[in-house]
Amino acid sequence: MQHAVIAETTFDTSLKSIGKPSRGPIHKVLVSFSAAYFTGALVTDLAYWHVPDVLWERFSIWLITAGLIMAGLAAIAYVFDLANNTSIERPAWPRAVGYAIAVLLSLANAFVHSRDGYTAVVPLGLTLSALVVIILLLTAWVGMALANRHRVGG
Amino acid sequence: MMHGFRNARPRKLARGLVVLSVAATSLVLVGCEDHGGDPRKQIGANPVLPSLQQYLVPPIRIAKAVRWGDAMPTVPQGLQVQALATGLEHPRSLYVLPNGDVLIIESNGPKAPIFRPKDIITGWVQWFAGAKAKDANRITLIRNGNGDGVPELRTVFLDHLNSPFGVALVGHDLYVANTDAIVRYPYQDGQTSITAPGTKLTDLPGGPIDHHWTKALLASPDGSKLYVGVGSNSNIGENGIGAEYERAAIWEVDRASGAHRIFASGMRNPTGLQWEPETGKLWAIANERDEIGPDLVPDYLTSVRDGGFYGWPYSYYGQHLDPRIMPQRPDLVASAIAPDYALSSHVAPLGLAMSSGTDLPANYRGGAFVGEHGSWDRTPLNGYKVVFVPFSGGNPSGPAQDVVTGFLDANSHARGRPVGLAMDRSGALLIADDVGNTVWRVSSARPGSPPKPGS
After folding, report:
1. Which domain holds residue A93?
2. Is residue A15 domain-resident?
3. How far apart are CA B252 and CA A26, in angstroms?
4. Using the beta-carbon criterion (under 8 Å), do A118 and B20 form an inter-chain contact?
5. CATH code for position A103
6. Partner B contacted by A104 (CB < 8 A)
7. Which residues in chain A are closer than 8 Å to B238, comparing Cβ atoms?
8. Domains contained in chain A, number
9. What is the DSSP letter of B253?
10. I need a surface site. Which of B45, B126, B225, B374 has the fewest CB within 10 A?
11. Domains in chain B, start-ordered, CATH in brackets?
């Protein structure tokens, strides 16, 4: 009898620890996924530029599409995170704008990559892919710098 | 202070995002503002070719498919139009047997593979335009012995084919060009149905992509050779140049051995192979490339030279380079032949009939009828009609004249789309309509015999 009660209590505690929103915001994970997809597209674009085999171009457009889907999911998750009042890190505003620009450029890039033949990538598609990665890097760098300043300055 | 900052942030963010979205949307819409010019400037030997444009979103302008109802195609005075056969399944091409029986090839392309997200969108567009009809894979025979346009007999002539398009009869050998092979069937005069198994003469470039799937077929006058129109496997090489092996070409197939050689190349989608009666030269129509503007590139009608190269994919109308193909081939471009006669851009010619017989009025003797399936990527719409190109001395001699119109209704919806053409034994013009699922017959209007509505 005593044994059973103990077991029940333990179970209850473990359930609570899973259910509690003690982890970081979900949207950040999805943002990382999309950033990785967009970066992958730059790599496959460079490969296509080097050897114009259509396979690379197809990799690029699917990577960009996957990145955009992840960005869409991230936007939904962001709303949920706001609603759930999950702790959102301090410099969210510059990050959000930088990321939004990168996503919009990627949307344009998806259309460019849907062209037929060489000009789906060279020069405009490749340029946009590179620009998106640069913006994502700058955004991450600015975000980190601001986070440090907040931490240091209190 | 803290409180105010928290409130301002999401609002500012929202405003910024709205501004960016509007900017991106307007960027997208820039491509759609583009209207095509007067198609008449692009008809004939010297079409006006504007400079090439590339789009963020290529314009799509499709005519929604609607029913004919009680409406009929429109023909000029002196002609009448009747429905020879209705209730067909995507009739694509026509062939008239020596006894006057009409073969209606009911066919559609194989399922297109999805390589890119764009291919999914293209599938939706085609469905909307009524081009996603089931593939009947069948040839129907219509007999109209007395030539009044009211058939006495309708049978399934040949069934279980594979996206057939071209048909040619040589003696008692009937050849059907499926999308992947030419198959020979024994045919006896007057036969209305073939059940005998076919014998493969040769393979043709088919799947798995099979972008331009139609294989037009024409026998040489002496019956020793067959000419086959083999379309490209892409718009402009986006499936890789390897996918274009022996495509975008007219094949010459030896009827005895099945061996083939490339008779002419660089034609993106050649169909409507016909002999010009005066000179005995081979003529064809071709669909040119898309996505570089509403007035590029004009589709054409041309004589086909043995060994000739007509530009695709490297160039168009001679030496106009296409930047979408890499590596370029200046050696081939230097030899590229400009076609004889432009039909204007995106009209999609898919049927050609050299006029013959004496049924039609004198002004339609000596020339070529062209079935223009109609544009899907141009504003305003172009094509959706049958035109007549007058010939003199074996060459086009004037502007194309509209012969059969009314395929579009007042709202620019497509009641039908003309495809394959043929002249029947009496000299009337037959038109396959793959959206209206009808075969139309155009003949001289005879006093006392008003046109009968289709039944």
Report:
1. 24-153
2. no
3. 63
4. no
5. 1.20.120
6. yes
7. 54, 57, 116-117, 120
8. 1
9. E
10. B45
11. 59-444 (2.120.10.30)
